[in-house]
Amino acid sequence: MMEVPPIPTNAAEIPSPALLLHWENVEENLRRMLAMVDAPDRLRPHLKTHKLPQIIARLVQLGVTKAKAATIAEAEMAAGAGATDILLAAPLVGPTVPRFLALMQAFPDVLFSGLADDLDALEALSTASLQAGKQIHVLLDVDIGQHRTGVAPGNAAEALYHLMTALPGIHPAGLHAYDGHLHQSNVAERAAACEEAFATVAALRKKLEAAGHQVPTVVAGGTPTFPMHARRTGVECSPGTCVLWDAGYAKNLPDLDFLPAATLLTRVISRPTHDRLCLDLGHKAVASEMPHPRALFPELPDAQAVMHNEEHLVLETTRAHEFPVGTPLMAIPWHVCPTVALHAFVHVVRDQQATEVWPILARSRKLTY
Fold it and tell me: What does DSSP say about strands 85-91 and 111-116: parallel, antiparallel, or unpaired?
């Protein structure tokens, strides 16, 4: 059962729908993340979930100076917040390349790295790096089952890494293997699948090193397989969702012990029938890329979503009569990452009081570069 934070005592002052960040739970989640690894430098948390410089700065204070980003804006935000080693977990192609080089120029004391899985893209990156007079650190993106990006960890991957070592301006920095397709609720099944998938990465690393290549870094996994990779040596872990947590992972990954640190404040804006409540929690306030439930309501465990539009969510519940129009409700998003991206700012809650408002800086696709 999730330990749900209470509605802020000053909820009447907060316009809804609103994203709330419960700072004590953030702190506790960071503590639990650190407790799972043997040293802070084993962590390279993915910041795509929260997109907040304040959380990056707190991680740096705790000794976690590495970060993983999904966009140039996220990478810039992380550098500005104090991270010193930032992986852009996306292939370096097209206009991303000059923007990436501009980041390197703007933050010379930060080590930036990116991903590659294609020879033509690598050759274009090599040309751009030479023109800029820079050496770009690149990790080979290895596909271990998600089939989204990456090259399969066999002969083709070995050959591409070998070619990376020969391309001027390219510094082969290791391997990246994201196993986001592994989210079995049964921890033993998830662990077995993780071991089977990662064995191919370990074998690739061994072959590359036997051939005389340096493979200084292996970045592996996300939140579901964080416990498995945390037990390895010589592997960096890149969980992201566990910083804020959400209802989907809480239900599907019962072995992971994190707290909901991001919630949604919504209000009853109408009671259209005796058993229905209409809330101001539409598609534009909570992620709606999956079937219902898209949010859970601790005060209404029996509620069923019957209609969801841009600005409205209609719930059916036998307890509708208990919630007058204007009543604030707490909602736990099912998928927190895209939910955060829908909000321009977050209300920070400390000691049950919403006292600050922070812009979600890296929600933007572009900051400076």
Answer: parallel
Max Cα-Cα span within the chain: 73
Digit-coded pLDDT (tens) for 14-29: 999 999 999 999 999 9
Rounded Cα distance between 201 and 151, Å, is: 11
- According to the model, what pLDDT value does residue 285 have? 98
User: For the segment 343-363, what is each residue's pLDDT rounded down to a tens digit?
Assistant: 999 999 999 999 999 999 999
Q: Which fold has domain 84-238?
A: TIM Barrel (3.20.20)
So what's the pLDDT on residue 3? 81
The answer on pLDDT for 1 being more than 70 is no
pTM of the shown model: 0.97
Q: Find all residues with CB under 8 Å of 180, minimum gap 6, and list them.
A: 146, 148, 222, 224
3-state helix/strand/coil string of the chain: CCCCCCCCCCHHHCCCCEEEEEHHHHHHHHHHHHHCCCCHHHECCECCCCCCHHHHHHHHHCCCCEEEECCHHHHHHHHHCCCCEEEEEEECCCCHHHHHHHHHHHCCCCEEEEEECCHHHHHHHHHHHHHHCCCEEEEEEECCCCCCCCECCCHHHHHHHHHHHHCCCEEEEEEEECCCCCCCCCHHHHHHHHHHHHHHHHHHHHHHHHCCCCCCEEEECCCCCHHHHHCCCCCEECCCHHHCCCHHHHHHCCCCCCCCCEEEEEEEEECCCCCEEEECCCCCCCCCCCCCCCEECCCCCCCEEEEECCCCEEEECCCHHHCCCCCEEEEEECCHHHHHHCCCEEEEEECCEEEEEEECHHHCCCCCC
Closest CA to 141 of 129, 132, 150: 150
- Cis (ω within 30 of 0) for the bond into 293? yes
